[in-house]
Amino acid sequence: MKHRSLVAGLGLALAVFAAPLAAQEYTTRVIARNLNRPTGIAVHGGDKLYFTEVPTPGVPGGLNAVKELRIHGGRVRTIHSGEPEPMNIAVDNSGILYWTCRSAGVILEQAPRPASATAAALLTGLAKPTGIAIDGDGTVYFTEVPTPGTSGNDGGSNSVSSVSAVENSGVSLISMGEPEPSDIAASREGELYWTCRTAGVILTRDVSGNIELLLSDLDQPNGIALDEQRSLLYWTELPTPGVSGGNGGSNKIWGYNLSTKQKFLVDFGDPEPTDIAVAPNGRLYWTCSSAGVIVEATRR
C-alpha cells in the first residue's frame, strides 16, 4: 500500500497489537550537561554522538548548531552552526552527517572531519522537513510536516519521502496524508518505522513498499530508533514537554520487541525526551531539550 495514509481518517478498523507490558530494567546516567536545547541525535560506532541544538528556532545566524560528543571523555565540538532550525540528524556508514533544517526547507550533508569541512545542500525547497534516517545503501528517508495535526482528508500535506545520497536521482514519495509524521527510523535493508505524533501511532513499511500500522494508542510519540539487529524499536513520548515526572509530567521512553510484540518501559519522568538513538552495543541515548542534557541508558 503506497502513497496513501493509513491514519488520515482514523475511523477505520485497525489491527492493534495488545501486547503485555514486559519488565525491563535500565540504568541511566547523564553524559552531557549544560547543552542549549539539544534536539536531534544520532550515534556512530561506540564512541561518537552527533546532536543538534535549537535554542533559536527559525533564526538564521542564531545559536543553533550541529555538534559531536565523544561518549568516552565527554568532549563536545561544533560541526556546523548558523542554520535557522537543524532538527533531526542521521549518520551513514562512513560517518557523513545528514540533517533536516525545518524552517529553511533543506536537508544538509557534511563530513564531520576535517574541521574545515563545510555543509552542502542535499535537497532544497522542502516543506518543513523534520525526521530523517538513512539505510545501508545510502538512501535518505525524511518526513515533511507543513500541516502538523492535519490529516490528508482534512487538507493536510504531510509526507514521507526518500532520496539517494549516492545517486543523482529524484525524490520518491513513500506516504502522504498522515497528520504528523514526526520522526523516522530505517534498517540497513530499508525497512522503515515512523512516529505520527498527533495520531498516536507508529507506522512501518517493509522493503516491498507495504505500509502497515504497527502500534496505536500511544501518547504523543516523537523520536524513534531501531537497533542494528532489527529486533528492538525505541521511541519517546512527549505528552507534557518541559514538565518532569516530579512535577506531574508523563513523558516516557518505550521499547518494543518486534519478534515477541511486547512493549516495555525504559524510562519515565524526564522533562522533554525529544529524540533517541541506539548504539551497536545496544545502549540508548536521548536528548532532553528543556533540561539541556543527553542521557545514556544501559540494560542491567
Can you put this structure into words, describing what you see?
The chain has 300 residues and is an all-beta fold. Helices cover 0% and strands 46% of the residues. The protein has no helices and 24 strands. The strands form six sheets. A four-stranded antiparallel β-sheet has the order 1-24-23-22, with no helix packed on it. The chain has a four-stranded antiparallel β-sheet with strand order 2-3-4-5, with no helix packed on it. A four-stranded antiparallel β-sheet has the order 6-7-8-9, with no helix packed on it. The chain is globular and about 45 Å long. The N terminus is likely disordered.
Spatially, the strands of the biggest sheet line up as 1-24-23-22
Range of helix content: under 10%
What's the overall average pLDDT, rounded? Answer: 91
Distance between the termini: 40 Å
Structural class: mainly beta
Question: Biggest β-sheet: count, sense, barrel?
Answer: 4 strands, antiparallel
Total number of helical segments? 0
Query: What Rg, in angstroms, do the CA atoms define?
Result: 18 Å
Which geometry do the CA atoms define? globular
Taken as a percent bin, the fraction of beta residues is over 45%
Total DSSP E strands: 24
Which stretches are poorly predicted, pLDDT < 50 over at least 5 residues? 1-5, 7-23
